[in-house]
């Protein structure tokens, strides 16, 4: 694939429901109740149950590996958690949108991808970058 | 309470071995919706040049975050666990984690500072195989928000 600075990744939209959070809790071992229990979430001042930050990071990673076509090509990833992804208790859940573009071409056939990750119009990761090995 | 800068550079004894299983990788891949066959199908993984199924990149957190908790158990680290949130996460993958790996995690405090009453602690977890092959460097910045 021909890649240059400014090349855009296909936009990816992920739907996140409470069931997804429960499944992620089990798979990751992170059973913090703010990710599944409204009582706990509101008691600590959150608007409601929120997604695991690491789940959002995983979705950002999926947008990158969908583009490279090879999960092993993602060699570095760095995120800063900004706002939480609030996941309502309904069938629709929340939507997480990942957009990205190539920010720099590096040595050894690698590139830096800069991602913008939003939910409900708000940026949820205040920084999200990946370094990929180009095929 | 302010974090002591002398904590920077402190390293903890290596963790017990974490043995990576195929079923755990498949479970994690399903949970994040990663449907690439290299996470589930050994033949597909081998065709892609891997000795066994490989984990999605953020799987490293399953091993590394637990290892990083050794820092919060350190009596010299005066952080209230109940106030801790995950501020930042970084992975540098030396190679993909794969089924059959026997991983050992070594945790080091990379940074410790208190800004505007918030304690910020950066823990670096080096994941390597039992034989010492580097696999992933996972760096977590944990924030304990001030009471004010």
What order do the helices and strands of chain A follow? Answer: EHHHEEEEE
Question: β content of chain A, as a range?
Answer: 35-45%
What number of structural domains do the residues of chain B give?
Answer: 1
Neighbour order of strands in the largest sheet of chain B: 1-3-4-5-2
Identify the CATH homologous superfamily of chain B. Answer: Hotdog Thioesterase
The class by helix and strand makeup of chain B works out as alpha+beta
Helix count from the secondary structure assignment of chain A = 3
> Terminal Cα separation of chain A, in Å?
8 Å
User: Any guess at the CATH architecture of one domain in chain A?
Assistant: Roll
- Do you know the CATH topology of chain B? Thiol Ester Dehydrase, Chain A
Q: Which sequence of SSEs, written as H and E, runs from N to C of chain B? A: EHHHEEEE
> Count of helices of chain B?
3
CATH topology call of one domain in chain A: Thiol Ester Dehydrase, Chain A
Low-confidence stretches of chain B: none
Mean model confidence by pLDDT of chain A: 96
For the largest interface in this structure, which chains are involved and how many residues does each contribute?
A: A-B, 30 and 32 residues
């Amino acid at each position: 694939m021909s890649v240059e600075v400014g090349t855009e990744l296909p936009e990816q939209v992920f739907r996140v429901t409470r069931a997804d959070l429960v499944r992620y809790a089990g798979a990751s071992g992170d059973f913090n109740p703010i990710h599944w229990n409204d009582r706990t979430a509101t008691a600590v001042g959150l608007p409601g149950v929120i997604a695991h930050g690491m789940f959002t990071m995983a979705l950002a990673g999926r947008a990158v590996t969908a583009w490279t076509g090879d999960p092993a090509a993602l060699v570095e990833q760095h995120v800063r958690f900004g706002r939480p992804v609030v996941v309502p208790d309904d069938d629709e859940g929340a939507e997480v949108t990942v957009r990205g573009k190539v920010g720099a071409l590096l040595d050894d056939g690698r590139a830096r991808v800069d991602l913008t990750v939003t939910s409900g119009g708000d940026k949820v990761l205040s920084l999200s970058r990946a370094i990929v090995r180009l095929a | 309470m302010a974090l002591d800068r002398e904590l920077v550079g402190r390293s903890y004894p290596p963790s017990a071995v974490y043995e990576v299983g195929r079923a755990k990788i498949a479970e994690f891949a399903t949970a994040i919706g990663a449907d690439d066959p290299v996470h589930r199908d050994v033949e597909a993984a081998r065709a892609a040049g891997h000795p066994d199924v490989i984990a999605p990149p953020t799987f490293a957190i399953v091993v590394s975050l637990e290892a990083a908790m050794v820092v919060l158990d350190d009596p010299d680290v005066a952080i209230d666990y109940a106030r801790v949130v995950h501020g930042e996460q970084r992975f540098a993958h030396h190679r993909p984690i794969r089924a059959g790996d026997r991983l050992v995690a070594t945790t080091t405090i990379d940074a410790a500072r208190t800004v505007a009453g918030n304690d910020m602690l950066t823990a670096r977890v080096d994941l390597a195989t039992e034989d010492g092959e580097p696999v992933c460097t996972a760096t977590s910045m944990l924030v304990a928000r001030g009471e004010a």
